[in-house]
Amino acid sequence: MTLQRPPVNSLNLDLLKEMSKSLDEIAKNKSKAMILTSASPKVFSAGLDIMEMYKPDLKRVEEFWTTLQEVWFKLFGSNFITAAAINGHAPAGGCLLAMSCEYRVMTGGNFSIGLNETALGIVAPNWFMDTMTNTIPVREAEYALTTARMFNVEEALKVGLIDEVATDKDDAIAKCKGFIGKFDRIPALARSITKLKMRQAAIKRLQDGRREDLNEFLQFVQNPKIQKSLEMYIQSLKKKA
Ligand SMILES: CC/C=C\C/C=C\C/C=C\C=C\CC(=O)SCCNC(=O)CCNC(=O)[C@H](O)C(C)(C)COP(=O)(O)OP(=O)(O)OC[C@H]1O[C@@H](n2cnc3c(N)ncnc32)[C@H](O)[C@@H]1OP(=O)(O)O
């Protein structure tokens, strides 16, 4: 699955809906595995589209968050094997997508990956945190989350946030295929049940608290102080260009 929403694959409602549909198709056509990557040469995904949260239409922003939750359920909780070929920056929601896969290969270069929410004055939702503690040790996750740490490729490899470094996108995809090939001699049902048991606690936590999670998000986007911060953040991103 190749993310292709220039310039930075920010996750807006339309892209999330497309992803949700594609994940359904992959599950339905009984694919063995999926590799998630990006059509951009330098950004895997810039995370959530800030414009969806800035001065939002309430109905749309509710659908936006619900669809994000759905994409996470379908990706993190998939039966099929998942790997991410991270060929560029992966901040925040971009990191969430990568961590929701079972294996991550990142191309070397001046790219960064991490959950930077606290730097934006945002508390990452529990399921973002659960996804991180499913990937790297709890102590490292707490440190990274509280300090909004963006890891460079070497740091990400050292902490286990990524599993391998690749020279370029083709190499990243080849390495993801190498990971998928490891399952050729492992019974598929045993593999998928084991994966889902490992992920069950996090999945159940969001299933049980899904409405509450949505309400918290809706309160968050309607807070005037948050709107002011988002406005300043958007300006800072645009000034950079
Ligand atoms: C239970 C729930 C309780 C409470 C809920 C609380 C919190 C949950 C709420 C939010 C969760 C948020 C998670 C997120 O994912 S927020 C998004 C965070 N993402 C970022 O901070 C990344 C910002 N972008 C960048 O750092 C860079 O763009 C880059 C490194 C990805 C790429 O750099 P480039 O130099 O290649 O590109 P730019 O020139 O910076 O950007 C080009 C273009 O794109 C616009 N843009 C960039 N990122 C975003 C984005 N995330 N959303 C929308 N638009 C974005 C940027 O402004 C430029 O636009 P112009 O071309 O200037 O118009």
UniProtKB/TrEMBL annotation:
The keyword Mitochondrion applies. The keyword Transit peptide applies. It comes from the Eukaryota. It catalyses: (2E)-tetradecenoyl-CoA = (3Z)-tetradecenoyl-CoA; (3Z)-dodecenoyl-CoA = (2E)-dodecenoyl-CoA; (3Z)-decenoyl-CoA = (2E)-decenoyl-CoA; (3Z)-octenoyl-CoA = (2E)-octenoyl-CoA. Pathway: Lipid metabolism; fatty acid beta-oxidation. Keywords: Acetylation, Fatty acid metabolism, Isomerase, Lipid metabolism, Mitochondrion, Transit peptide. GO terms for biological process: fatty acid beta-oxidation. SUPFAM superfamilies: ClpP/crotonase (SSF52096). InterPro entries: ClpP/crotonase-like_dom_sf, Enoyl-CoA_hydra/iso. Its main location: mitochondrion. GO terms for cellular component: mitochondrial matrix. One of its GO terms (molecular function) is delta(3)-delta(2)-enoyl-CoA isomerase activity. Pfam families: ECH_1 (PF00378). It is found in: Mitochondrion matrix. Key enzyme of fatty acid beta-oxidation. Able to isomerize both 3-cis (3Z) and 3-trans (3E) double bonds into the 2-trans (2E) form in a range of enoyl-CoA species, with a preference for (3Z)-enoyl-CoAs over (3E)-enoyl-CoAs. The catalytic efficiency of this enzyme is not affected by the fatty acyl chain length. Homotrimer. This is Enoyl-CoA delta isomerase 1, mitochondrial.
